[in-house]
Structures are given as structure tokens and as C-alpha cells.
Amino acid sequence: MTPQEPTGMLLHDTALVYGRYLRQSLRSRFALLFGALTPLLYLLFFGPLLTGLPLGRAGSSWQILVPGLLLQLGLFGALFAGFTIIMESAQGVVERMRVTPVSRLALLLGRVLRDATVFVFQAVLLVLAAVAMGLRAPLAGILVGFGFVALLTISLASLSYAAGMKVRTPQEFGPLINAVSMPSMLLSGLMLPMSLAPAWLNVLSHFVPFRYLVDAMRDAYVGHYATAHMLYGVLVAVGFAMLAVTAGTRVFRTAGA
Amino acid sequence: MAAVISAAGLARTFQTKAGPVDAVRGVDLTVHEGEILGFLGPNGAGKTTTLRMLTTLLKPTGGTAAVAGHDLATDPAGVRRASGYVAQSGGADPGIGVREELVTQARFYRLSKADAVARAGELARELDLTDFLDRRTAALSGGQRRRLDIAMALTHRPKVLFLDEPTTGLDPGSRADLWDLVRRLRDEHGTTVFLTTHYLDEADALADRLVIVDGGTVAAEGTPGALKLRYGGSLDATLQDTFLAVTGRAPAPAGDAPVAV
Lengths: 257, 261
Ligand SMILES: Nc1ncnc2c1ncn2[C@@H]1O[C@H](COP(=O)(O)OP(=O)(O)O)[C@@H](O)[C@H]1O
Ligand SMILES: [Mg+2]
Hints:
Largest sheet of chain B: 6 strands, mixed
Order of helices and strands of chain B: EEEHEEHEHHHEHEHEEHH
Strand content of chain A: under 5%
Number of domains of chain A: 1
Shape of chain B: globular
Protein name (chain B): ABC transporter ATP-binding protein
CATH class of the domain at 3-85 and 159-247 in chain B: Alpha Beta
Structural class of chain B: alpha/beta
Number of strands of chain A: 0
Subcellular location (chain B): Cell membrane
Membrane topology (chain B): Peripheral membrane protein
Radius of gyration of chain B: 18 Å
Keywords (chain B): Antibiotic resistance, ATP-binding, Nucleotide-binding, Transport
Main location (chain B): membrane
Bound molecules: adenosine-5'-diphosphate, magnesium ion
Number of strands of chain B: 10
Oligomer: heterodimer
């Protein structure tokens, strides 16, 4: 890719790559639904435990839990996206694309936008199930929440693809992702709000970017949009996405070492 | 004859956890227009690494090269327009249909939708894939899949076609078909073909000229006849003896399988 590549070509190529991978996702409907299974189980069998507990935040327990589960869905799903690029590299698909003039940024963007689409779709299913379980939240807040899920998946999928291009074997990739995903989930207060945490844990959690996203999303779910949490959440989500896509594109451009 | 590929001191060192690996150390070579060049060498000689540098997939750590007048370092886009590449692993996704793969590849080369569909049909006819257009690529035989890989690489009618061990894993019938295909591409379209192989009989039968690489450097080059004469002692020498004389190592024992280096 030349640095001054025309934007028209970037859009053309991104749409092409996006279409290819979206069709691939649609061909495996089972996987499409299966991805939402873990958070759905939490919703069904963990959610009811919280309904009577004081959680130290405004809103019902569902308004606190559902944002966390949606981000958990994006976190785990998107972090594992890189597995597919390891398979594609072994099949020669990645190099076959990289010898064409196709934009390197589009090779990444098309894939991560597909991932964002899939996870937002699963998030919609999860919210519908949550409404059936008793969630009541403003529609605008729920839509804002989907925006955070999309940004999170774009960020994490980009980094995951970059890691997949670097490590090249599933045996190295799996442990790496597990080492990132579990602490991220626990330290960001996805399951229970960090307002319940002792001071040291609360402080520690501020070094995990997802903490800001979940706080902002929980505000959105109770209809509070002009808050400091929301500001930080948006800044972190957008900044993180830009950094991650830049890092990912760099790897797609120079991959092969 | 004009040089369509020229490389001088082309080198690549990989940084690995176990220390640096000098995969290619200073390769000089010239390939003429319309030539079928056999890039011959044992496993690990640096063939794939050289090919990946010449196709812009990998940045050299030393030296320079140009393909069809486009410099690797300063005009990678020009190199990509002029060359097609088939990796040893191929490049088709097993879960995707043959038609979709051909059309997508044409779209990557920026053909319009209608042109891409037309080009896919043309390539399928030329490479005898028309009957398989609606199959998933996983359902193709080895020879058919190879032809699909080559069809994808020919999408933009490149001047130079790079093939990395194109017949490894093919049955004898498919190998013979592929040799015919390579000759036809050169004869009908004037395409320059740069192919790597570790099969001596393939190099002997197919290549106009050979470049023998070993340990990341060029050990010898010339027509098969000239190499036999110079290193094997006579025109009747086998390429196997010649190879032995060049590298100081015996190629793998010959069976009825293709003779591999
Ligand atoms: N990405 C890489 N990282 C580290 N070493 C590599 C890499 N690719 C190739 N090598 C090493 O470089 C040498 C040449 O490899 P290669 O070009 O694949 O040889 P050939 O294609 O002739 O079999 C080998 O020793 C191989 O292990
Ligand atoms: Mg090789």
C-alpha cells in the first residue's frame, strides 16, 4: 500500500474483504449462534443470583450485569479471532491476497468489521434474552452499548489478528490469549461492578482499559449519558481502537518475518 | 534477450529466538523474458525465501532486485502488477467455492464486478476448471487445486509467474499436465516462469536454464546441458551426478518416485 492510497480504493477493498468474510460467517450459522452461548448461560444461571443483592450502583441488577456480559462476549470472541488468520496463513490465503494490490488496511478492516457485525448481532440476541429475564433499560442506552461492543471488538480483533500473524502456531496463540483474556475480564469488573472492590483492586482495575467501557455502558443502561464515566469510556474506546487498528495494519503490511 | 528479473546480492536474515538465521545470503541472478527458469535446491536452501522477496511479501535485509523494471524497494506496487505468485501451500480457502475465489481475486486486482465475472469464466476455460466452478475448493483433486491456484495468479495477465514447488504432492499424471501448462503459458503468452523445485527430473524436463542454490547462495547456473557438461563431465551425465558435483552432496536415493534433491 502506498501511503497516499486513494480512499475510494480503500472503501472498495474493505467492502470486498468484508463481504467475503461475512459470507463465510453466514455459511456457518451454528458458530454464529454458538458464540453467544457462554454469556447466555451467565445470563440464565448467574443473573438471577444478583437480583436481590446491593451492587453499589444505580439501576437494577440486570442493568449492571448485561453491559458486562455484552463486553465479555466481545472480549472473548474478538480475542480469539486471530485463530482464523493462523489457519489462513497455513493455507496460503493471506499471502495470496498480499501479492495483489489490495490495500493492507482493507485486509484488516474488512475482517474486523465482519467480527464487529457478528458480535453486535450476538449482542442483540443476548439483550432480547435479557429483556425476557427482566431487563428494563432505555433504548438509546442499549444502542450506545452496542456501539461500545463494536468498538471493543474492532480493537481486540485487530490486535488478535496481528498476534496471529506474528506467532503463526495455535500452540503459541492459545496460551497467549488466555493470559490476556482472563485477567482482563476479572480486573475490569465485567461480572460485578468494581464499586464493590477493596481500594487496591479498584485502583488496579483502572489500568485495564475495559474498566472504562463497562462503567460507561452501565451509565448508558440507566439513561445517564452526560457523565464523566461516559466521557472516559468514549475516549478510551475510540483511542484504543485507533491504536489497535494502526498496530494491526502495520503487521499486515510487513508480515512475513 | 532482455532481463525481466535481476537481483544483486539479495539477502534475508531472520531473527529467531535461537539467533539469526541467514536464509538467503547474497543471491545474484538474471532471468530473461519468456524463459522458464528452474530454481533448484534441497529443502532449506532458501528458495521460498527468495521467491517471497521477489514477490514483495518479504523485505530483503540486503541487496536489490527488480521485476519487469520495477524496483522491489521503491515500487512494490509495480512489482505486484507485473507478477503472479503461487505459494507451495497454494492459496485457496477450502471453505469457499471455485467461482467465488476466482471472482474475488479479480476484484482484488481492481476489476469491476462484471469484468471480474467474465475474467473468472475465461480463466476457468483456459485452465480447464469450468466443470468445477460451483464446487468448494476442498472438493478439488490436487491437480485441479493447483490449476485453480495458477488461475488466480494469472488473473491480471502478469509478465512473470512465480511458482513455488508447483508439483510437490501431485500424482505423475497431474505433474505431466502441469509441465504442459507451464510450457503453454510461455509459448502462447510469452510469460516468464520462475519455478522452484527439488525434483531433478522436473528441472531437467521443464527448465530452459537452472539456478542451483544451496545454503542460501547460488552454487551454479546454466542450461541443464551446460551444467552436465561442466560439472558432470559429459552431456550424457545425469543431473543427479551434476548436482552431486556442484553441492558435494548426493541427492536423495532415486526410486520410481521423482528424483528429489
Ligand atoms: N519466517 C522464518 N523465520 C525463521 N526462519 C525461517 C523463516 N522462513 C524460512 N526460514 C529458514 O530459512 C531457511 C530457508 O528456508 P526456505 O526459503 O523456506 O527454504 P526452501 O524453500 O529452499 O526449502 C531455512 O533454514 C528455514 O528454516
Ligand atoms: Mg520452500
